[in-house]
Amino acid sequence: MAKPNYKFAKRQKEMAKKKKKEEKQKRKDAKKLETAEDGVGIPEEAERPVSE
Fold first, then answer.
1. List of residues 6+ apart from 47 with CB closer than 8 A
2. Where is this region: Disordered (predicted)?
C-alpha cells in the first residue's frame, strides 16, 4: 500500500487557498471600479464645500 504524500496534499491545499484569495480580490477590485465609474460612493466630492 502506498503511503500518503503529505507535502503534495499541503501544496494543493495552499494553491487552492491562494487561487480563491486572488479571485476574491479580483471581485472586490471589479466592484470598487464599478462604483467609481458610476460616481456612487465617492465621498471626496460630496465633502468639499463650494467656495464663492
1. none
2. 1-52
